[in-house]
């Protein structure tokens, strides 16, 4: 399965939800429809799109369900920033990565961190990759303690 694509769609869905006050299902549906059209044009297997769709929904629903706890965790590692003052893109990337690092047993934390850096470089500003790396690097160092809470 293309987890990177799923993460991209999850970040975009979370962003859409915050920007346009759309519900999770509508945001994911819209973005998955676009992804399915691209896959059809490139000859991707139909089953692959269904797997990506399921994973995107798991990620988005997980972030939504744990959002306050995730924001509290991320806040611990922000120096001079507040979660609600971050750029919307960086905030969604940090939330998604934190969710994967803390709550997903099937994702190695370092893989979630590396994927988040790539997402930040792709969707964020020139400084987003470094910023996300710094915050999540600190979170990674405290991961055992965070998982116990």
Share of helical residues: over 70%
Number of helices: 8
Second CATH tier, the architecture of the largest domain: Orthogonal Bundle
Name the overall outline: globular
CATH class of the largest domain: Mainly Alpha
The proportion of residues in beta strands is under 5%
Largest sheet: none
Low-confidence stretches: none
Mean pLDDT over the full residue set: 90
Q: What is the ordering of alpha helices and beta strands?
A: HHHHHHHH
Which key phrases capture this entry?
2 domains; mainly alpha; N-utilizing Substance Protein B Homolog, Chain A; 149 residues; globular; 79% helix; single chain; 8 helices
Explain what the structure shows.
With 149 residues, this protein is mainly α. It has eight helices and no strands. It has helices at residues 3-20, 24-42, 46-65, 67-75, 88-103, 109-123, 128-141, 143-148. The protein is globular. It folds into two domains: 1-65; 67-149, NusB-like (N-utilizing Substance Protein B Homolog, Chain A, Orthogonal Bundle), CATH 1.10.940.10. Helix content is 79%, strand content 0%. The longest helix is centred in the middle third of the chain and has 20 residues, at 46-65.
Give a summary of the structure in a few sentences:
With about 150 residues, this protein is an all-alpha fold. The protein contains eight helices and no strands.
List the helices and strands and how they pair.
Layout: H1 3-20, H2 24-42, H3 46-65, H4 67-75, H5 88-103, H6 109-123, H7 128-141, H8 143-148
Helix pairs in contact: 1-2, 1-3, 1-5, 2-3, 3-5, 4-5, 5-6, 5-7, 6-7
């Amino acid at each position: 399965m293309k987890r990177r694509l799923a993460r991209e769609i999850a970040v975009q869905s979370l962003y859409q939800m915050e920007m346009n006050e759309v519900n999770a299902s509508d945001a994911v549906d819209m973005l998955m429809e676009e992804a399915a059209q691209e896959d059809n044009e490139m000859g991707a297997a139909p089953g692959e799109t269904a797997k990506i769709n399921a994973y995107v929904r798991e990620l988005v629903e997980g972030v939504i369900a744990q959002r306050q706890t995730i924001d509290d965790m991320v806040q611990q590692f922000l120096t001079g920033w507040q979660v609600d003052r971050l750029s919307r893109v960086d905030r969604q990337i940090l939330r998604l990565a934190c969710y994967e690092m803390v709550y997903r047993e099937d994702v190695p934390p370092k893989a979630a961190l590396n994927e988040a850096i790539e997402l930040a470089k792709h969707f964020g500003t020139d400084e987003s990759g470094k910023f996300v790396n710094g915050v999540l690097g600190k979170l990674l160092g405290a991961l055992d303690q965070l998982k116990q809470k």
